[in-house]
Amino acid sequence: MKVVFRNPSRTEAVAGPARVGDVLARLGVNPETVLVIVDGALVTKDVVLLDDAEVEVRPVISGGAGPARCSRCRATAVIEVARHRAAYCGDCFLDHVRAQVRDAIDRHRMLSYDDRILVAVSGGKDSLALWDVLLDMGYRADGLYLGLGIGAYSDRSGATVAGFAQERGATLHLVDLADGYGYDVPAATGLRGRSSCGVCGLSKRYVFNRVARDHGYDVMATGHNLDDEAAQLLGNVLRWQTPFLARQSVVLPATAAGMARKVKPLYRLGEREMAAYCVIKGIDYVVEECPMVGGNTVLRYKDALNALEVASPGTKAQFLFGFLDRVRPAYFATADPEAATLAPCGECGQPTPSSEGRAPRCAFCRTRERVVAAVAARGAPSAGRLVQLEQQGGRESGA
Ligand code: SF4
Ligand SMILES: [Zn+2]
Ligand SMILES: [Zn+2]
Questions:
Q1: How far is the CA of 87 from the centre of ligand 2 (A)?
Q2: What are the tens digits of pLDDT across the range 225-259?
Q3: Domains of the chain
């Protein structure tokens, strides 16, 4: 396709079909600084452009003279971060990401260099970037990938994670829900009382805890970023979910003996920064969303916060950091109300809330029983994905 730039004028040829966002990325253009116009109409970054398209890329930042300069070294910038009123070249941007992770770790005493860390990796930008940053910073970080059985999406995710582990020579635990527990996430569709995402989240938390405990990890790290945490906080505040507010933290201490603490070292970095990190580092990640994401309310909160952020950069960070630094210590310092009543599940031994006098059975074991019964009624899910993944890379030691 023909891509015509205005002010200053130039023309580039790019092969199609390709998404607008990908075309801009290939040409090193920050989407926030331009409008993309096809046949006189504006198009957004998800629109697919055909090979014979004629596309105009029009700059929208007035008062600028030529390309933005890196705020640190004055080289040509590749990304602007409005929240910091800064632009960065590739190298300085990677330094910026590492500095934000270092700040998060030090402020909240998340990790030490003696800790054995288990990173939950999905194949998406955040978790792979987190694993990459921690390895680069010299931490002892292994990965855990849980195969959810969501068709081609899971196949691509598993292969991407295995490829990353192989490239970095990192240890990866592979667990497949169908192989290990007799069901997959699509099998939970239509289950009364819990959505597929609810079953998926419960399964992820359970397997993560279990692998961490069985393999003696000190810390579990997840790729939750600034956008995830701010959206979660907004949802909790809008509904005044005070127990959830009490649990919303970037460090959750171990709730029982043998359990690992949970940390979120990316909470000071936005989604866009994590995607940019992966692009600059050449990390292949799964760009597609999970096909079962429809109706996820967190996405609505993210949209609302992004609208505020455009009008007033820094709003999201002020909202989240204000809660973590001031509100939480002042009003929710006693933290997790569930922690005092934990006891081992009578079936699997994982800690679970208990009421006095009754042997508890954890939410995972109860839900699993129902999903497995539904699977038996409909026919078994396909197993054996792990075998393929193991052949592609990573050192397997799954549960
Ligand atoms: S969108 Fe739902 S089903 Fe898909 S990975 Fe996320 S929680 Fe799981
Ligand atoms: Zn620079
Ligand atoms: Zn259990």
A1: 8
A2: 999 999 999 999 999 999 899 889 999 988 777 78
A3: 2-59 (3.10.20.30), 108-287+326-335+344-351+360-399 (3.40.50.620)
